[in-house]
Amino acid sequence: MTEPLVSRMRAFGTTIFAEMSALAVQTGSINLGQGFPDTDGPAAMLDRAIQAIMSGANQYPPGPGMLELRRAVSDHRAEHYGLSYDPAGEILVTVGATEAVAAGVLALCEPGDEVIAFEPYYDSYAASIALAQARLVAVTMRPVEGRFTFDPAELRAAVTPRTRAILVNSPHNPTGTVFTRAELTAIAELCRERDLIAITDEVYEHLTFDGVEHIPLATLPGMRERTVMISSAGKTFSVTGWKTGWVCAPAPLVTAVQTVKQFLTFTASAPWQLAVAYGLRHELEWVAALRSGLQDKRDRLMEGLAAAGFEVLRPSGTYFVQTDIRPLGFTDGLELTRRLPELAGVVAIPTQVFYDHPERGRYFVRFAFCKKEEVIDEAVTRLKHLSS
Fold first, then answer.
1. pTM of the predicted model, to two decimals?
2. Cβ contacts of residue 319 below 8 Å, gap of 6+?
3. pLDDT tens across 322-371, in order?
C-alpha cells in the first residue's frame, strides 16, 4: 500500500511530547518535559464536576457550550480586562485551546493563505495551518537581555498580500516570554494597517510572575473586532485533562469558528464545563496561590539548573524555563534530550523542534517546573552529574 496519510500531514509524526513522555516511562526518568502539573486543581471545583455527573449532566451540552460557562467567561473577561463579550453569540466553548486554534485556522484561512507565528511555537500551530492548506510564516524570537523577543522589522517584512492572520501566544510557550505593551502595539499596528486577523492563545494568562502583567491583544485600540481570543481551564486550574477551552470574539468570527468546530467535536464535557464555570467565579484566589507557588518552583529550578552548569533564561510566565546547553559542552538539544535519561535520569524537551529554522534553536532545552518541590529537587540533584 502507498503511504495513506495525506501529504500535507506527513511531516507530523509522533509529537515530541509523546516521544519524551514515553522515554521517561521506559527509563524511569523524572519527566520535566511535558507541561502538566502533578497536583490537582481546587477541591471545590473538582467536587462540582462530581456533583454535575451525579445530577445527570451527562448528555450533549449545547453546541456553543453550557450557558453557565459562557456567562462566567463573559464576566471574567469584563472584570479582568474590561472586555465585553455577549455569552449569546460572542463566546464558544471548545475542547481545549488546541481545538480552538485548529477550528479558528480552518475557519478563517483559505488554501494558500499565510499565517504568521512566532518561532519557537507550540507544535499544534503548524499542524493546524497545514490542515487548512495554508502556509506558516515564522518570525524568529531570540534572546535579548535575558528574554526572548522578536524584531518588529522582521515581523513587518513577513507580511505579504497572502497574509491572513497572525497567531500570537502570550504568555509564550515554550520561551516563557510575556509580550510587553510595546511588542503588542507593534503587532496591533500591523494588523490594523494590513487588515489581518489575530488569533491569540492566552492559556497561561493567569500564570505570570514577578508582577509582570498579561495584556490581551484584544484590549489594544482597534483589536477587539479583529481578534479571536482563546483560553482554557487546563493551565489556570491545573486540570489539563479536562480539555475545556473557549473562544471570545465578535459574532461573525465566532460563527465562523463554530461552523468548523461543530464538525470536529460538536460539543463535549458538560460536567467539566459546569465545574469550570464555578472555578471562574469562586476559585481565582486559589489561582493566585498557584501562581505564587509556581514562581517559587521556577526560582528553585532555575537555581538548580544554573548550579548544574546550564545558562538559564528567566521566564516571566508559563510552566517553562529555557536553558542554553553550550556551557556544558553540548551543541544539539535534540541529541542531548534523547541521551539525558541515560546521563542524568531526567527528561526535557529540545526547543529546536518548535522552529521552522531548527538551527536557531538547537542550543536550547526546555524544562517544566509545574511539579512538586521534591520532584524538582531530585531532578536538579540528578542533573548535577552532567557537570561532574
1. 0.96
2. 35, 37, 173, 204, 207, 235, 294, 368, 369, 370
3. 999 999 999 999 999 999 999 999 999 999 999 999 999 999 999 999 99
